Amino acid sequence: MGQPLIILNSCDIMDEFDKKGAIYSDRPVLEMGGELVGYAESLVLMRYGPRFRTYRKHFSRYIGPNKPIQSLHPLVEQESRKFLRRTLENHKNLSGNLRKLAGGIILGLAYGYEVQDGDDQFINLIEQANNNFNKASVPGAYLVDVIPALKHLPDWVPGTSFLKLARDWRRDTEAMADVPYAFTKKQVAAGTAVPSFVSTGLEDEASRSSEYIRDLKWTAASLYGGGADTTVSSEYAFFLAMVLFPEVQKKAQAELDVVIGNDRLPTIADMPRLPYVNAVVTEVLRWNSVAPLGVPHTAMEDGYINGYFVPKGTILIANLWAMLHDPEIYPDPFVFNPERHLGPEPQRDVRRVCFGYGRRICPGMHLAEVSVYSLVSTSLAVFNMEKALDGNGVPMTPVHENTNGIISYPKPFDCAIKPRSEKALALITESHI
Length: 433
Description:
By secondary structure, this protein is mostly helical. It is built from 15 helices and 7 strands.
């Protein structure tokens, strides 16, 4: 319908757009998911401009290069150990346990909030908003994304049921930002707040403008909105890969047994000494495309890439799934093979593809990396992940299939997760904080 569209299927071409990120870092307007449901207030859909740069400065203040990520390692390791205990108690709730793991890290970082066992109000609140967004952003699901004028129709007109749905979902989006922010603000007022992104940002609150407070609140919400879903997808895929490729699991466990031993859990400080475990993390990112088509970019002015004219307003879609499954770069791309990331000349830097390009590169990429590593290394150290048995005692082989949406998850699967030994069991039970 007259909209220029470029699909990037080549890592080399994406590198070219990266080098000229200043003019290719805007976002297209997503009428349903962004404007109507409210995610245009979050960093992931924020148009490029002064507010976007303010959000990035807030991120940099707490998890950027001037704030060493090492300061967050204790939080990541604490929540990873809680995950081990929860999974020991109920491995059938693997997906829920992973959501609490991701939620515990990000809610602790953003708000100083400790996730509760059982039903947790903040986890439920934020997951509901994120689920809404995933539904609202499916390409082609809502005609208003193609014909924006439809959003101005009265909701009694036939075919406008999406307007009521958008209002309901917008309330969830606003609650995702407002409720945990109010929790931390109350803690600050009472003098009981623990250090967090919001509590440190509220220092000298009386002198802060309403715009500052608004941006602080929505940057905090963006931490969870942009990080939790993606991390959970990668971590869930890790367990699927270990079930489908037991030889990889055994090799990673052998490295852990030699380097770490059986008397303690691996830590983030051990990362440099565990090349194969790190390769497992990298292969998880490649094998399971968390965001198969990324999030679209928009050209802010005319330009040329590799001799091709790119008009202002062109929507750019990076086909990350194709890049990460290119058989010329990754032979047998559907096989989970960490070996491809080892050696003097490992195959293309997967992280470089997964975490975006230009000025939209993920500001939380280092936190995401250590979070996935912590989950992978500690789980391999203490658990065996195996095929579940059906009613007749026959092992069931899960299938690697993914859901639709901007964020894609492996479809639910069954598996058996058991302690590797009595020593491993003791490490799990002793590690609870």
